[in-house]
Amino acid sequence: MTTTLPYTPAVEDRTSSLPLRLMLAPAGSAPALLDGAWWPRSRDLTAELPALTAVLDPLWGRITHVTVNPTFWPVIPRKVPVDGHVVGVGWFKAEQDPHKLLLLSYSVGRWDLLVIPPETGPATAARLMTEAADPLGTLTASALMNEAEQRRIAEEMELSLVSVWDSEGGHGARLPTSRSPARAVIAQVSDATKGI
Fold first, then answer.
1. For the whole model, what pTM was predicted?
2. Three-point CA angle 129, 131, 135, nearest 5°
């Protein structure tokens, strides 16, 4: 008796129908602190790295090793299978920026990508990706993330102030439709100090 089992990959390929969220500095641009940015959909390196390296292998040569800072990655696998080869994964806590992914290729070199947290909103992620891919950029991965956080805090404070202003009769307040004119009150005030 022969049984046919459907093929089930060991790692769910969730990204195949979704575009890879990646922006790279223009080819041939002068080296900068960052070579671009990657916005993964999760913090699962085993699920996220195959799609990333599949896109980068033809551009940069076969990616053979990746390093991360474990601060934002709950599980760091030692190896990840990618299109017929294995990518080694390492980590450096003190030596590597926690918001950066380092990719190595034996034949070509090394690239540094800003890693945008999966929970980041689309507008902020787009802004961060553009800034990280700027060949004239001078900010580190952590500096870019700190700047984005400061911008988020400032925007929240501004919204909060506008909300308070509106609730206290600010720009949303309306004048009554009919008002009678104010009447002047005229009264004679006695001088109480004359009799003393």
1. 0.71
2. 110
